[in-house]
Amino acid sequence: MKTNTNSITGCMLSLIYLLSISACDNKTPSINAVGNIIAADSVNVNTPTNNKQLVLKLYQALNDTNWALARTLIDKDFKHHFVKGTGFADVPWSGFEQGYRMSQQAFPDWKLTPIQVVAEGEYVSTLLSGQGTHLG
After folding, report:
1. InterPro entries attached here (predicted)?
2. Chosen CATH of 5-135 out of 3.30.390.10, 3.40.640.10, 3.10.450.50, 3.30.70.2750
3. What pTM was estimated for this model as a whole?
């Protein structure tokens, strides 16, 4: 059986995150229910540079399919917000992970590339490009 291979590239606007940083007592950075990143410690963590680095660490974990690391960056109450045909929706981290894993079955070499990362105060916004080879 022959597999048809196609390459696609597109902007992943549904994966743009607005994230904010706050300090807590735990030692693992995470992203909480409203998309807030909880920093590992309170020493100068709430800077635009640190906020960007934490968001980029999450995208690198997704690119590496390092789900164990990605889960340490995400709070148990995290919601992924996205646009679908019927309007806006959200899913918990488990739904995001399930959908992302399904996408990786169709695009096994799928990678997200940050095109622009903007941080101001507590917020980080990321414009992403996604590229992969479609098998099927």
Report:
1. Cyclase_SnoaL-like, NTF2-like_dom_sf
2. 3.10.450.50
3. 0.65
